Amino acid sequence: MHTIKAAVCVEFGQPLVIQDVHLRAPEQGEVQVDLEAVAICHSDISYAEGGWGGSLPAVYGHEAAGRVGAVGPGVAGIAPGDAVVVTLIRACGHCPSCGAGKPTTCETPYDGDLGPLTLTDGGKLHQAMACGAFAEKVVVDQSQVVKIPDDMAMDTACLLSCGVITGVGAVVNAAGLRAGQDVVVIGAGGVGLNAIQGARIAGARRIVAVDMSEDKLDTAIDFGATDGVLATAEKPWRAAKKAIGRGADAVIVTVGAIPAYDQAPRYLAGGGRVIMVGMPHTGAASSYEPVNFAATGQGMIGSKMGDTVIRRDIPWMIDLYRQGRLKLDELISNRWRLEQINEAIADTKSGGARRNVILLK
Predict the structure, then answer these.
(1) Cα–Cα distance between 235 and 233 in angstroms, integer?
(2) Residue 37, SS3?
(3) Which of 242, 241, 288, 289 has its CA nearest to residue 269?
(4) Full-model pTM
(5) Residue 358 β-bridge partners
(6) Domains of the chain from N-terminus onward
(7) What confidence tens digit (pLDDT) does each residue in 210-269 have?
(8) 177, 342 in Cβ contact below 8 A?
């Protein structure tokens, strides 16, 4: 049993509390990772605000990197000292989804109330998203980690655990984009920039970024967008179609804003697909006319974590990064200490940050 520091959510909508908690040793098939960096994702913030409910007290955080400190029985291919990234993609390997090669939708439930974390008095402490990475150490299933090059910077590597694979994967895996096709990416934040990179890498002809901020649109061009459209313009889909010369083959919605979902189909060409990535709060709803989809052969597809197979896709993305074809370092807006996590969250909520990273070493 380790005593570690963690940022604990005690009450939804209130600042996280830095406190000592207990972390048990890894058991069958589990890995302990001594974390060095964890990025702040908007999903962590939505959970901490109570947007999706959940059990409290809880430790959030799921975009992390560090070194293996210990392994439990039955762990193969991972050893103490290995540099790894830690994801929330916990895959049993034998349910119908895992058997179909879709580990992001594994159907075997996990109860974070019964995970490796407890309060120092033995009370319940929820391990959110099967990770609980706003902490000095984590214990996770071996399916959740991927080895990375020993010399890769941890603050850069941790971004691969969620934001990068979600954005790139939404284009490459979920949309199945082919070279020469056209893409609209709604939202030029952390995930949106990676969707833009995914479209560039996949060989898109035109990549139109749509955002509320002109500064973010300028950044989107740096990451590979060919055109930028202000979402505040009247009927922005008209400007996007003018830039493309037609509708888009894929529209990637990377924000959880209902207006973005309401408007997304308007950007599509016939036969196009809306890829639903951004996650609104529970209860939020959009409405559509089904006849329009039926008449034009269009559709909407949900994409969780970019439909990623982590041991296939993360090494590929690291190789692209090392070739200079995938930007990672440029995604980091600022670096913070664990004690500054509430400031980092506030900065993330302001909308200007790409990714804020908490350094734990």
Answers:
(1) 6
(2) strand
(3) 241
(4) 0.95
(5) 38, 336
(6) 2-161+327-359 (3.90.180.10), 167-303 (3.40.50.720)
(7) 999 999 999 999 999 999 999 999 999 999 999 999 999 999 999 999 999 999 999 999
(8) no
